[in-house]
Amino acid sequence: MLLCPRAVTAALATASAASTLILPVAAASSKRGLVFTPNVTAPADDKIWIEEPTTLTWYYNYGPNPESVYQDVPQSEFEFVPMMWGAPDSLDDTSFLSTVKSLIKSKGINITNVLSFNEPDGSFEYGGSQIEPSTAAQLWVNNMIPLQEMGVRVGLPACTGGSSGLPWLQNFLAECSELISSKDKQRNCTFDFVTIHWYGNFEGLASHMGEYSAAFPNKTMWITEFNLNDRDLEATQSFYNMSTEYFDRLDFVERYSYFGAFRSNVSNIGPNGAMLSDNGSLTDIGAWYLGRQPTGILPTSSSSLHLPLPQKVVAVFAAVVAAAISLA
Ligand SMILES: *[C@@H]1O[C@H](CO)[C@@H](O)[C@H](O)[C@H]1NC(C)=O
Ligand SMILES: *[C@@H]1O[C@H](CO)[C@@H](O)[C@H](O)[C@H]1NC(C)=O
Ligand SMILES: *[C@@H]1O[C@H](CO)[C@@H](O)[C@H](O)[C@H]1NC(C)=O
Ligand SMILES: *[C@@H]1O[C@H](CO)[C@@H](O)[C@H](O)[C@H]1NC(C)=O
Ligand SMILES: *[C@@H]1O[C@H](CO)[C@@H](O)[C@H](O)[C@H]1NC(C)=O
Ligand SMILES: *[C@@H]1O[C@H](CO)[C@@H](O)[C@H](O)[C@H]1NC(C)=O
Ligand SMILES: *[C@@H]1O[C@H](CO)[C@@H](O)[C@H](O)[C@H]1NC(C)=O
């Protein structure tokens, strides 16, 4: 697969800047993307992900329209992937289809992939879109099939990582097939890739991926939300390292996006999985994800519990300086 020019430039720039260092930074990854979560009070946070160098080649924002903050970055360098997310009030509603069509036809944005429903097997209370398989099937027929006919690739709905996911998908596919089959010709709704979410440890992730690979053989996979939630920093970093290395190595993993791109003190998955510290700096995981050297900044920047010794000394020194300044 070709690397995008911006990623190559970034990798070269980093390589030459770091040429005296032995430690290589992560290679630019064409699989890696951003789950965009906006920060309205600190809009500078939103720009962190497109600053050079970055490995990110695509993003989604749980909605059908691209972010205005990224409008100057070409689609070919940072691909926007629209998402339908949930069910509109009416089964006949084709506003997702018309929005995507207008992005392509009126705005000239080269949309080649879309995501369908977000955790339809999960309740609203936990961020799911709570859709009956039969409802989802009708909406799919009305919105996704016409996009597929235009050559747009569509992802199977992204269920929760729980045991309700596969049965929901089987029901959905059965309902969908019924809608498009006739008495003498059985047809199936098709999809271009499987989309999964995972919160938990690495072994659980690998086994979850195995179950989905068995259920949908020969399909590529996008992991559009994943993390080890509510664990200490070392366990979280170890999970991050193992899962991203695993995804990079597996051919059937087409894309992945780490959750999440927000500050640690608003995180709903515990502070250590956040890629920004509570004061808005990249944490080590945030920096690694962008292919940069670690920052040594803790998710909770006021604490220095997990710092290796040299950084701890620097942090203590900085705290002493800060105290001295505030006394002056
Ligand atoms: C749109 O993107 C696809 C996939 O990256 C590419 O193959 C195609 O050439 C692009 N089309 C245009 C008109 O840029
Ligand atoms: C449709 O899917 C079902 C279940 O996976 C499968 O048994 C059947 O052969 C498929 N039919 C067609 C026409 O592809
Ligand atoms: C998967 O792909 C391989 C190679 O293209 C093919 O031999 C095999 O039959 C496929 N399996 C299924 C279940 O479609
Ligand atoms: C994660 O990987 C980085 C190198 O990319 C390494 O410095 C760090 O020690 C690793 N952490 C864990 C907990 O495996
Ligand atoms: C947005 O930035 C503010 C600081 O201005 C911070 O308090 C808040 O936690 C941030 N929100 C997110 C979602 O990161
Ligand atoms: C997050 O931390 C920043 C200070 O670093 C603070 O300004 C902000 O109010 C905090 N936000 C929340 C929701 O606690
Ligand atoms: C956040 O705090 C860390 C140290 O606690 C500091 O290195 C970093 O520069 C701060 N970030 C911002 C954006 O102020």
TrEMBL record:
GO BP, sorted A to Z: fungal-type cell wall polysaccharide metabolic process
Keywords tagged on the record: Hydrolase, Signal
Signal peptide: 1-27
Keyword Signal belongs to the record: yes
Highest taxon, organism lineage: Eukaryota
GO cellular component: fungal-type cell wall
Domain Asl1-like glycosyl hydrolase catalytic residue range list: 35-289
A GO molecular-function annotation: hydrolase activity
PANTHER family linked: ALKALI-SENSITIVE LINKAGE PROTEIN 1
Protein name from the UniProt record: Glycoside hydrolase, catalytic core
Organism of provenance: Thermothelomyces thermophilus (strain ATCC 42464 / BCRC 31852 / DSM 1799) (Sporotrichum thermophile)
Species classification: Eukaryota, Fungi, Dikarya, Ascomycota, Pezizomycotina
